[in-house]
Write a structure and sequence with these properties.
Layout lengths: L6 H10 L24 E5 L3 H15 L7 E2 H17 L6 E8 L4 E7 L11 E10 L5 E8 L6 H6 L18 H17 L6 E2 L3 E4 L5 E9 L3 E11 L20 H17 L6 E8 L6 E11 L5 E2 L3 E3 L6 H5 L12 H12 L4 E9 L5 E10 L3 E10 L3 E13 L4 E10 L2 E14 L3 E13 L4 E15 L4 E15 L12 E14 L10 E11 L9 E13 L4 E13 L44 E12 L4 E13 L9 E14 L2 E11 L8 E7 L4
Helix pairs in contact: 1-2, 1-3
């Protein structure tokens, strides 16, 4: 089989097997398409419905120009080769592929591809349809990895380069074996040792034992680490460059000599010269090791610097901006004309331009490419004016929900954005329209105006809210947080009120409030956090002086902490506290909508949404004026995508502040399973209530999407 010119395509094949993202809505209208002949039909079978489709789409992309209304013999061979490459990555080293071909005259031909043996083709061959029937054969998988001579890192970390042991149960998907994977893992372990300073580390050819009947593979790997190279001296050589300060070498001494250390040193030196206006500076780093002493070799390092000419900025230019105003672009580029040309500052300008969110592509080059005066040229490709996204979700209380999100970009050429969101579920209808102005005051302060409406059936009343909010937001880099401040005017109403306080509750009221929020997020993954933390504070203060008909003060704060615990286990802890007061107003005037009604998949999980709210003696619900919620989870990975959860939730509520903060306590404990997807975990959890109240359920099954806290 032909393999030349296909190696790069085979490497990209796995990436292309992923489903393609949905394309955005067209701009003003669809672009005219060139008429073309219907492509030859391709299909794949034998791998399951979803995998068949993935590989078929990947073949269509990779064949590219080879695929028109017909396929020749070379295209069929290429397709079979690419399929075998994908199967090899999954551990199927000896697949058989039968290509059922339909010639242009309607006659059929079957060609068998097996291993690396080329198939015999009648040539010339032209077909209009090809079906590839895959027989995968034995799946080869690693059952054990033994590494000797490895002391620089933990043996378990060394084995992890070859075999994924991060789950409770290993399977073929976590431990596939292929020669390509073995070569990659061996190189990665060698690179890790060299990054730790073991420049002479070598790995002997692995001893591989393969059972061709079961597919079981065992590896034995011998490592010779050699002495550790340590940086003992560092000197800079080269021509002087006016405007460049003396480079401090002390922070780089007594460090392991490694390729990464050399790259970090060269990068730091280049940064110093860039700041002085030397964009062409070249740095080469060389080290000379001394004799071995107790397993350590001292290294004398010389960094040779060639500054190149001092360069100044000519005129900053922008190309490709059709709808965007020049003033909007220029405000994001920090360097003025005739300033020393600092590539880092200009790259910073590229980043700041990208934050506008109105470009699909953004490149930077210089004209001329050489000389002492150069024009930075930003070449942009503006995004479409409109985006449209369909929204789907599920929660145990609201059940199925669906909606649409429409986004408009770069309004008035000033990078303004607008977004309309409409969502309908079984229990609620909601919509909002947001208009955002980036860089309203300075570059970091963004402004937005939001109109919103909500109609939601709660357990004991029908919630209706609509109004508008004006918000300012900006990052606070000195504490690594994001802050928002806003003013909200809204109509709060409740219908079909079945609360214990319904005789006293106001059915409708206008509320005007100042809203403040502060959030710091240091989680490693927003969708599936395994380490890190997040905290938040939110306040809402309504007052007659702001135009409100009622006075109230609402505060919520909390956080979450995630940390590994042993092998493929994690601990998740969440805490939230809320309190609402009515200082300056009658307590009975506190809107029903602003009290707390805990319960649900993201609260105390033994109760449905709102079902953990306080009750009176007759079982009717009452809104709480304060609550404290503690969530504790232990997560154990079972496979790469499946996890088992053990959790307990504790809730305390108070109907009146005289009993703040613990008037009533509720507890739930339970089990759950989670399946990880690209948009977060699908969760199925059952919470059992401990000492429930007479009207409470014994437990609740929760089905939802997304991490709970």
């Amino acid at each position: 089989m032909r393999s030349h010119s296909l190696a790069a395509a085979a490497c990209a094949f796995t990436l292309l097997c992923a489903p393609a993202p949905a394309s955005r809505a067209a701009d003003a209208g669809p672009a005219p398409e060139k008429p073309r002949v219907t492509d030859a039909k391709l299909s794949v079978s034998g791998l399951g419905l979803w995998r068949n489709r993935e590989l078929r789409v990947a073949l269509q992309r990779l064949l590219g120009d080879q695929r028109s209304s017909t396929l020749d013999a070379n295209a069929v061979e290429d397709a079979a080769f690419l399929l075998m490459s994908a199967l090899s990555e999954d551990g199927y080293l000896k697949p058989t592929i039968e290509a059922e071909l339909t010639r242009t005259d309607g006659t059929a031909l079957t060609v068998r591809f097996e291993g690396e043996n080329p198939a015999a083709f009648p040539r010339p061959l032209v077909v209009r349809a090809a079906t590839f029937k895959v027989h995968r054969g034995v799946r080869y998988h690693l059952t054990s990895v033994a590494i000797t001579g490895l002391t620089a890192i933990e043996p378990a970390l060394g084995r992890a380069f070859f075999r994924d042991d991060s789950t409770l149960f290993s399977n073929f998907t976590t431990t596939p074996y292929s020669p390509a994977h073995l070569k990659q893992a061996t190189g990665a372990l060698r690179s890790e040792l060299r990054d730790l300073g073991y420049a002479e580390a070598v790995l002997a050819p692995p001893e591989v034992k393969i059972n061709n009947t079961t597919g079981a593979v065992t590896l034995a790997i011998a490592v010779q680490e050699g002495p550790r190279w340590n940086v003992a001296a560092l000197a800079l050589e080269g021509d002087e460059a006016p405007g460049v300060p003396t480079f401090a070498t002390a922070p780089y001494l007594q460090k392991p000599w490694s390729p990464h250390w050399s790259q970090d040193l060269a990068t730091a030196i280049r940064r110093a010269y860039y700041a002085g206006g030397y964009p062409d500076v070249r740095v080469t780093v060389a080290g000379k090791p001394g004799p071995d002493s107790a397993g350590v070799k001292p290294v004398a390092v010389i960094a040779r610097v060639v500054p190149g000419p001092a360069v100044r900025v000519g005129t900053v230019r922008f190309e490709g901006a059709v709808r965007t105003r020049p003033s909007t672009l220029r405000s994001r580029v920090p360097l003025a004309d005739a300033a020393p040309l600092n590539p880092l500052k200009l790259e910073e300008g590229r980043y700041r331009l990208s934050r506008l969110g109105i470009f699909d592509a953004l490149d930077l080059h210089y004209e001329p490419a050489t000389g002492t005066t150069r024009d930075p040229v930003y070449v942009v490709r503006e995004t479409r004016r409109w985006d449209a996204n369909l929204l789907f979700g599920y929660g145990s209380y609201e059940q199925w929900r669906a909606g649409i999100e429409l986004q408009q970009h770069n309004l008035f050429g000033r990078a303004h954005q607008s977004q309309l969101t409409l969502i309908q579920s079984v229990k609620s209808s909601r919509g909002d329209y947001t208009y955002t102005v980036p860089g309203l005051i300075g570059e970091e302060l963004d402004g937005s105006v939001k109109l919103f409406g909500l109609r939601r059936q709660e357990l004991a009343f029908l919630r209706q809210e609509y109004g508008g909010t004006v918000t300012l937001s900006r990052p606070l880099p000195w504490i690594g947080a994001a802050a928002t401040a806003g003013y909200t005017y809204q109509r709060l109403s409740s219908a079909d009120n079945q609360l214990a306080t319904r005789a006293l509750d106001l059915s409708a009221v206008n509320a005007a409030s100042l809203d403040l929020a502060l959030t710091r997020d240091r989680r490693d993954n927003v969708l599936r956090p395994h380490r890190g933390y997040r905290w938040f504070v939110r306040t809402e203060v309504a007052d007659h002086s702001l135009g409100s008909e009622v006075d109230y003060q609402r505060l919520e704060f909390g956080g979450a902490w995630h940390t590994p615990w042993g092998r493929s286990r994690w601990t998740h802890i969440g805490f939230t506290h809320g309190v609402v007061t009515s200082l300056g107003s009658d307590d009975r005037d506190l809107p029903v909508n602003k009290r707390f009604y805990p319960g649900g998949e993201n609260s105390i999980r033994g109760y449905a949404d709102g079902e953990a709210a306080p009750r009176d003696a007759f079982g009717a619900f009452r809104g709480a004026k304060s609550y404290t919620l503690l969530n504790l989870e232990l997560e154990q990975a079972i496979t790469k995508n499946w996890s088992l959860i053990v959790f307990t939730d504790a809730l305390s509520t108070a109907v009146t502040l005289s009993n703040y903060p613990f008037e009533e306590q509720l507890y739930s404990a339970g089990l759950g399973v989670r399946y990880q997807t690209l948009i977060g975990p699908i969760r199925v959890e059952y919470g059992r209530n401990i000492r429930p109240r007479p009207q409470d359920p014994s437990g609740t099954l929760q089905v939802s999407l997304g991490f709970p806290f």
